Amino acid sequence: MDGQLGDFLASAGVVVFYLLVWTLVFAGTALFLGVFIPFITGDSLLFGAGLVAASTSSLNIVVLAVGVGIAAFLGDQVGFLLGRRYGRGYLDRRGGRRTRLAIVKTESFYLKYGWWAVVVARFMPWARVFVPVVAGVGRMNYYKFLSSNLVGALAWGVGITLTGYYAAAIPGVKSAAYIIAGFFITASIVFGLRTWLADRAQTRHDAGATTGSHNTLGG
């Protein structure tokens, strides 16, 4: 990712580079782009942008990181307002069976973790897209969402961009840059997998309880 971003920077220039990164981060949640290309709008994009900023003096890491944080914040705000305005039907129109299953899983995740779901979802590709909208559909208190969205945008957007930058800028750390990037991406996948397995276990438990209830009634 950082190689492709570096080539793009060389051909398009600094301003267009900033705008591309910020637009992709915003569109990842506001326009549901993250459903189709999660790795181009997610962790690898931010980490790669940080690496590129460390390798060229033309990019200002403060401008880049602050812009990413703002774009991430605004993207979730748009998703939340869309969910609040158009409701569950808006989600149901977002795609096919796979997308609808992801929405159901996200609703369960949101109900379990509430305020923290908005923060933690930033690091989970599937949840990052749908949690803001689900929070809007669920009529989450606007100011609670505002605070959780701000914390998530800072931790994920600014945090991972700066991690990529310092991984390449600090002597002795540069060689470990890709290991650090792999850690963030792997952690996102592992957390998502653990949540999925927990949800499956809960579903089996509920199904078993329902079957047992029917058998008792039938007896």
TrEMBL record:
Residue ranges of the TM segments: 15-39, 46-74, 113-138, 150-170, 176-197
Location, primary (coarse class): membrane
Protein's cellular compartments: Cell membrane
CC annotations in GO: plasma membrane
Species name: Cryobacterium lactosi
InterPro entries: DedA-like, VTT_dom
Domain (VTT): residue spans on this chain: 50-165
Name of the protein in question: DedA family protein
Annotated keywords: Cell membrane, Membrane, Transmembrane, Transmembrane helix
Membrane topology label: Multi-pass membrane protein
Family membership: Belongs to the DedA family.
Xref: PANTHER family: INNER MEMBRANE PROTEIN DEDA-RELATED (PTHR30353), TRANSMEMBRANE PROTEIN (PTHR30353:SF0)
